[in-house]
Amino acid sequence: MTQAKRTKEDGRVEAKRIVDLVQREVDDGATSVEEIHKAIANLPLDILDRLDIFEETAKGARKVQEASIGAMYDVIRKVNEEVGKLAKEILTGRPAHKKAVHTHAG
After folding, report:
1. Residue 38 is part of which domain span?
2. Which DSSP letter does residue 78 get?
3. What is the C-alpha end-to-end distance of the chain, expressed in Å?
4. pTM more than 0.90
5. Is residue 47 domain-resident?
6. Domain count within the chain
7. Is residue 57 one of the residues assigned to a domain?
8. Cα 92 from Cα 11, distance rounded (Å)
9. More confidently predicted of 104 and 78
């Protein structure tokens, strides 16, 4: 029985390790793609920056663009985090985090 219990626990530890590895790789991949996305998206704005009459327009567009691209990849990272939690729960048979119990006074 001890051997079976240890093996089951080893499997849980290995499952968590794999989930953590996949999560890290997805996060790293999202960061790499985000950097490439921003670099490509900045190309036309870099040209506008060189034209004096469009310099302020390019600055405003760049702020909006950076915020929207950043927000999109933040969502990808958040989804990755939540999927990782769910995967750990499924693979280990244990909740990854305890949910707070709300009580209402009244």
Report:
1. 12-92
2. H
3. 50
4. no
5. yes
6. 1
7. yes
8. 8
9. 78
Q: Residue range 78-92: average pLDDT?
A: 92
Asked whether the beta carbons of 100 and 46 are under 8 A apart, the reply is no
Closest CA to 91 of 8, 4, 10, 12: 12
Residues 31 and 73 sit within 8 Å (Cβ to Cβ): yes
Residue 58 resides in a domain = yes
Q: Which residue has the tokens 């691209």?
A: 69
Separation CA 29–CA 33 (nearest Å)? 6
Please report the pLDDT score of residue 45 as a whole number: 94
The two three-digit tokens of residue 35, written as one number: 């950097």
- Whether residue 21 lies inside any domain: the answer is yes
pLDDT digits over 4-59, tens only?
A: 566 877 888 888 899 999 999 999 999 999 999 999 999 999 999 888 898 899 99
**Separation of alpha carbons 86 and 65, rounded Å:** 32
> What is the rounded CA–CA span in Å between residue 39 and residue 23?
24
